[in-house]
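PROTOCOL LOG
Step 1. Enter all chains and additional molecules of the complex.
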Amino acid sequence: MSATTSLTAADYEAVIGLEVHVQLKTKTKMFCCCKNEFGGAVNSHVCPVCLGLPGVLPVPNEEAIIKTILTGEMLGCQIATRCKFDRKNYFYPDMPKNYQISQYDEPLCRGGTVRLDLMAYPKDAQKDPATSADKAVRLVRIHLEEDVAKSFHFEDGTSGIDFNRAGTPLMEIVSEADMSSPEEAFAYLSSLKQILIYGDVSDADMEKGQMRCDVNVSVRPRGQKEFGTKCELKNLNSISGVRRALKYEIARQIDVVASGGKIEQQTRRWDDDKGETTLMRTKEQAHDYRYFPDPDIHPVRTDEGLYEEAQSRMPELPAAKKLRLALEYSLTAYQAGVLAADAPLADYFEKAAKPKPANGPAIANFLLNDYLAIAQAEEIRPKAPAFYFTELAELSVSGKINSRQAKEVFAQMVTAGKSPTQLVKELGLEQVSDVAQLEAFCDQAIAANPKSVADFKAGKQNAVNALKGQVMKLSKGTANPQLVGEILLKKLSA
Amino acid sequence: METASLTIPELRRKLSSGEVRPREVVDHLASRIEAVDPKIKAYVHLNVEKARAEADKANPALPLGGVPIAIKDVINVKGDPCGCASKILEDYVAPYDATVITKLRRAGAILFGRTNMDEFAMGSSTENSSRGPTHNPWDLERIPGGSSGGSAAAVAGHEAFAALGTDTGGSIRQPAALCSCVGLKPTYGRVSRYGLTAFASSLDQIGTFTKTVEEAALLLEIIAGHDTRDNTSGEQPAPAYTAALKTGVKGMRFGVPKEYFIAGIDPEVEKAVRTAIDEYRGQGAEIVEVSLPHTKYAVAAYYIIATAEASSNLARFDGVRYGRRVQNPKDILDLYGRTRAEGFGPEVKRRIILGAYVLSSGYYDAYYNRAQQVRRLIADDFRQAFKKCDALLTPTSPTPAFKLGERMQDPLQMYLADIFTIAVNLAGICGVSIPCGFTSAKLPIGLQIIGPKWGEEAILRAAHAYERATPWHKEKPPL
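Step 2. Run joint prediction.
Step 3. Record the structure below.
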């Protein structure tokens, strides 16, 4: 009997788990010496090993193992004492050997957590009071495997395979089904990406295929313990795409269930243009992968040097960096957060701020406002030595130049490649704070603008701004505006 | 003495002195092959011009300078076909050299000829070849053994000075015994497997066929050693195997495993092997009886482990990237299905199916996992035995060469041909078969000497001592 329930969308909750595949940033592939490089002519980074020719043998890439251990360390996982590989057997044209070398029952890392910082959420969700500030998503495992080749399907019905990607080291990160909203999934992926970049493990750019994500999502009435039937979503090509796909799919599932229907376990394909998921395949007989330990590869002990090497590469993690920057450089939480979210930017900042930490806030302002504005507009970060910012901040904080002048100097320092000190000299921008000089300018302005003077004396306080503007003009913009204001007020009130 | 019948040291002497030139050696060998191979059918590929060109550049000062070596058709030689006696690879040309080939080349050897085998090294008679069987030079109506039957017959028939073969369950030792030559299977990991088309990854080893033990030692020196391309190759440095060869067996202890002298052995085989054991006694060695109690499980364990690994290793032959591809496939499944159905022979298919089954969900623990545990027990048996002796003496094959076609209807009967050799592969230890007599029908009989891991020096030393005192290695088939 199918009953029309009286439950609405708000009475359901979503249960989301993510399976993320990450390409490791190693020089060579997982089991051969081919270059691990994006781009390159089709089938140019290949060799007998990654093509699965008769007679070849895999040799594990130690760096890939170290990077995986490091990832596990950064995420608080338990690291296995040995790295054992297994064969996952199935037939598909993008698998040269028709088995994939992976890990089955002894993943390199188990457990661990990904903490979702508020700033990892999409901007609109950050302001939402419902967004949790300290959610942690548990991980099931992280294991190491080789990537498969890339298939291309042409219009004439034929297909081609590019084996450049075949054999690339791949880390598979499996989360528990701890997420309950598209925004949390977004935050999870952003946080994960940040950690991976921090550890120099991967660039994790989804659009370049360096990070791929499969989503498992189900819905259930709020408070119910049993899981609903889940669907798997594929073809998610960006972090925001994952959010969009989940939003659609959750609504779809709730729609079905709320009107009395049943969710069938399916794999669904997300179409970002159309904004919908469509059926790819229903749950088939589960593949029998006939896993067995790969007899071509001796298990490697991780506790004889690999673990120590990974440990030595542990970076300062984003949360810790944020706290430290705020403390050491007197930054606001916001400033520290933005910097900590971007490791290279944080390093750049510290280089500039270290000589005089007290100038930290000023440097942060220049970086976060002026510098990032250019970076966003031109999609490339301008190159300027860090000490330019050190100088610029000092000039500004000490009052030698005013804020408008500082902006002018900044613009020139990134395009012309000249230091602020040099520019101030060349442009004659040294702010005038000499009282005598300023008094002279003020007298000039007062004499030339009787109307403004009269207005001020009549009670219009703002009339002083016109006079200020005149002084700035007379001084070619070099007058210290604060002092000018004080001097004018003194003169006018006399 | 015919040039083709020389041993490698004799050949090298003549090359060094200039008495014969490398090109002439190739020509002599080519003539011999032309004369007898139409009957023996040991070779599946021969490029005389290429060999002559290599001969012209030969440097007799190198350890194998100017010496032609035949290669089993499962080892990759750049530019040569590597068919593995299978229709699925009939037009495949290897684009790279196996590590052993690189080593042979560096030693100055001329790679001349590719020899017949059971398809993908699966068989004990060379009757599973897509190219037709090889015939035993001692009796053309009989099998030469397998899977390296072509290599054994070529050396025995003086159509090759030496040949490389492979041994997964006995595929070097058994044909060596049936053809009367020296067949050496090194310790697992002694010789690199890079470039060996894989059958069973944890069992395969490349080894040698030669007329004498000294030549086996010489070749082993050249092909042994750690290879960074083979993660399973051992890091032990390879000693100079020819050095300790002549020290004799006085004071050595030889174990005779009682499980290897059971009912079902041909009585002439048993007699010849027992006589050989007496010869060792006479030379001053001590003979002790030992027991390898888990011997009776070896064949079963082998056919689970080897087929499991093979089912995975042979998955790559799918018509997508190389090798045979079926015409006009309907879809990808049809491409896979028909390519493999048409490309693989029946024994290969049998083993792939069996291997997939023993790995399948629900059966892994009962079969594959269990077989690996039994394997451990078998290895322990040998470890225990080697506490009491330096090497073991056994028959290599329970019977001499059987007739072509005799066992093709009963695969299990065929599998029992390897009953004495198979446990050695499971334990990863070394073994050599040397001629120890003939039956009244003039069919060769082989003596197997088994050594512990990295124990090649001991078994070669024992083999050499026996060879020196006996005439078998000087016999030549009536061809």
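Step 4. Note key features.
The interface with chain A takes residues 75-76, 82, 84, 89, 92, 94-96, 98, 193-198, 200-202, 228-232, 308-309, 311-312, 315-318, 320-322, 332, 336, 356, 359-361, 364, 368 of chain B (CB under 8 Å).
The CA atoms of residues 308 and 355 of chain B lie 4 Å apart.
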